[in-house]
Structure formats: structure tokens, C-alpha cells
Amino acid sequence: MRLLHTSDWHLGRSFHRISLLDAQRDFLDHLLATVEEEKVDAVLVAGDVYDRAVPPLAAVELFDQALHRLAELRVPTVMISGNHDSARRLGVGSGLMRHAGVHLRTDPEGCGTPVVLSDEHGDVACYGLPYLEPTLARAALGAEEGGHTAVLGAAMERVRVDLAARPGTTRSVVLAHAFVHGGESSDSERDITVGGVSAVPASVFEGVDYAALGHLHGCQTINGRVRYSGSPLAYSFSESTHRKSVWLVDLDAEGAVAAQRLDCPVPRPLARVRGTLEQLLEEPGLETHEQAWVEATVTDRVRPHGAMATLATRFPHIVSIVFDPEIRDTGEQVSYARRLRGRSDQQIAEDFVGHVRTGRAADALEREMLGEALEAARVEEAQEESHRPRGGTPPRSARMHSVPADAEAAG
């Protein structure tokens, strides 16, 4: 039996405020073409169909179109909800969709009820385990403990019980949305540590022929029978080195797995570049990134004015800029109290401005504004002092400048 394993579509997601809807539409066109060209027997979608619980209308329409096209091809589709999806919203209409060959699994209590597919070698029981939030799924699955490993283990126990009651020739596939030990994460995945330790051992899937995983955005193999397809598009610059793909999985008569990666269309490459503004504008080696979506890290000691607009003259698709000035460490260790000694409030405030702006000190207008603000604070403080009973709380200036002796000694 030939299966196409995909996940983490995140329909409706943008990339640094750039809509990816057209790119997601291109991916779905590619997916459907692959189903036809490779004579796929079933499509597996391992969660995170949408990017958020209440997706935008355009994303819902795109999903609806994809379902209609899959149904027209008469290719069964098994799909689970992920941690980005609203399981209840995604599952609406699942009973009707089943008659069209689209099988949505969003209820934890249905973990042990498979979609049974058949080929010339017999049956393939396909179990859908939606994302199992430990606090919510523990009672439904009767897990003895909390945490991801416990609830996923309880779900897999239901799978094994059902599978044991079937003929011995029945092959088995599980879809799951989880973080499995050995997987490599990226910045664009939502943290699922709430409810216990997030990672689960791959051994939890023992006893089934293939585990089609979702959640991690990099395509990767945990072992020969446990794989992540990854997301079809890059959703953060941490994925700039990913090769986006889907798995084409063949199950033979004995349940042995042969898997092949098929590349997904890339709307625009991603690139991370680093250097001073002058280096980024002049470095010949960066020519290959001029049409990419770019994240530039600018290392000038003083933040350049209008850096984004300037860099856009060379990188018209720059979407992110990071300032990381390269400052030499003088090795001088001076205590905070010693640095303040003998300096006025005005000087301290001006030093702070220069510090947070990495070398660009306050100009004349800013120094004047700081002086006015400090003078206003002193006037207000004097008025408070005139109404304060003797022995009361000391004025703010005294509290600001008092330094405990042990702090001075500690340095």
C-alpha cells in the first residue's frame, strides 16, 4: 500500500507579515498532483491543518477546496487535529466527510477505532491519535498519570488492544502529533510543555508498522518506522536550512516500510546574513541571497539610521533586521556603585541613553529634555518633602543614591 505522509500545513499563517496563502495553495496543488502521479492509495495528514484555533475565512476556503479535490480523486484521506487546531471546530462535519473518504480524527476517545484500508495483500488499520493535551485527555483515556508520555501510552494501548483482535495479517499505521525524543525542533513550533514533560520516547509506538508524526517542522527520521514529514513551507528563519518535503511510504505485504522523500515547491528561499551595514551592502558573496527572504543581523557599534530601507536597496525582500553590535570586551570590572560615584543625575541619565543605543549618546535636544524631566522630579520631590512628617520615608533622591556598604564591597 502506498501512503503519502504530510503534516503541519498551518493554513492561514503568514511569514513576517507576508501572506503565505498563495504558497500554501501551490503546495496543495503539488500534493494533489503527486497523489495522481505516484498512484497514492491514501493520504495521511498528521495535524496542524490550520495555524490557529479560529482560522481566517480564506484558510477555511482553501482547506475546503483541498478536501473536495481529494474526494474527487477517490483517494482516502486520514487526518488528525494538532495543537494549533481547534479539535472541535476541525471535527465538525466529520461524519458526513467520512462518506466522501475523508476521515477526521479529533476525539481522543476514538484512538482505538481505525480507518480500515485494503489492498491486494489485505487490511491496513490506520489509527488517528489527535494532539493529546495531558490535562484534558487523561480522563478520557483513563491514563494513570499525567504528562505526554502517559496519555500517549494510554492511547497506544487502545490501539494495541484493537489490533490484537484483528487477523494477524493486518498491517498498522498510526498518525500522532507529538514531540518524540530524538526529534530536532525549530523556532516556529508552539511549545507543548504545558501538562508535563513534552518529549515522549519513540518506544511508545512499538507494535505498529508505521508512525506518521506531525508537530516538528523539519522532515526527519526517528527510526525506520517512525518519521516526521515536517511542514511543507518554512515558517521561521530557523528553518532556512530545511529541505521541505513529504514522505512517500510503501508498506509491503509483511508491513515492511520503504520511504522516499519528495520535495515541496519553494516560494522563495530564506537567508540569514550578518555583518556591518557596509559589509552587507558590498560583500560579493551575498549576491546569491538578493532575491531571498532575508533576515539581516547588523553588527555596527552604532545603530545605523534607516538600516532596513538601506538594505532593501540590495535585498528587496528583506523582512527582518536584528541589531547585534560587536563590542570589544575591555575586561574592566567596575562596580555599579563605583561607576555612579561623583556623577550627577543628568550624567547618569545621559549615560543610560548612550548605553541602550549602543554608543550613540544623547544629543543637545535630548539632554535638554532630560534636564527638564529631572528638574520636574526634583520640584515634585521638594513639594512632597514639605508635607512629610519628621521621621517619615526619605525622599526618592536619597533612596536612589544610597548604596549599602556591603554592595560597595562586593563590587
UniProtKB/TrEMBL annotation:
Entry annotated with the keyword Hydrolase: yes
Molecular functions per Gene Ontology: exonuclease activity
Occurrences of domain Calcineurin-like phosphoesterase (ranges): 1-218
Entry keyword annotation includes Cytoplasm: no
Region annotated Disordered, chain positions: 377-411
Xref: InterPro entries: Calcineurin-like_PHP, DNA_Repair-Maintenance_Comp, Metallo-depent_PP-like, Mre11_N, SbcD, SbcD_C
Keywords, ordered alphabetically: DNA recombination, DNA replication, Endonuclease, Exonuclease, Hydrolase, Nuclease
One Pfam family it belongs to: SbcD_C
UniProt cross-references to CDD domains, sorted A to Z: MPP_Mre11_N
Basic and acidic residues bias locations: 377-388
Positions of the Nuclease SbcCD subunit D C-terminal domain: 267-353
Top-level taxon: Bacteria
Function text: SbcCD cleaves DNA hairpin structures. These structures can inhibit DNA replication and are intermediates in certain DNA recombination reactions. The complex acts as a 3'->5' double strand exonuclease that can open hairpins. It also has a 5' single-strand endonuclease activity.
Oligomeric and partner information: Heterodimer of SbcC and SbcD.
Family designation: Belongs to the SbcD family.
Protein name: Nuclease SbcCD subunit D
Natural source organism: Streptomyces ovatisporus
